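Sat 14:20. Reprocessing the chain from the morning session after the first attempt stalled halfway. Input below, unchanged.
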Amino acid sequence: MERLARGDEHALAELYQRWSRPLFSFLVKMCADQALAEDLVQEVFLRVWRAAPRYQPTAKFSTWLFHIARNHWLNEREKKMHRLRPLSLGASSSDDDAPLDAADRSARSPAEKVLDKELGARIDGAVGRLPEKLRETWALAATKGLAYPEVAEILEIPVGTVKSRMFQAVRLLRHDLEPYVADKDVPDDL
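Finished this time. Tokens:
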């Protein structure tokens, strides 16, 4: 950001290369529309470029960036609320969100792949049914792996509220997914 503030255009390209995929992944989970998420990513980076001269590194860059993205999404949602369709993560999840790496996926049998896809669709549906506040907290903490203090800063809420929302999200997801994973080991964080 310091280089960008000094007018180094290559710095913006580097920031875009590093952060566009995680930002897109977060935004597509929030809006369930790949085209809209792509537009939002472009607008966020335009805002980053415009804000570069005033940028003060008071927090981690990722916190600042996701905060901008979240606020921009909330503004756009207000404008386009009636046109958004229900959240579906299955078709839009990026590779960096996949639970198995490519080697693990290719070694699995076709039946296992079908079961994984079915379970993935059920998980996506359960996450999509979470109330928005829980879903955005889940998307930042569980999916993006951000620490609770960072999530709190992005959402402008206390850390205790982040913990409470994550607890509620996990409880609702466990309840929703219980019939589908009753015979399997369920991780403690789900």
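Confidence is low (pLDDT under 50) at residues 82-105.
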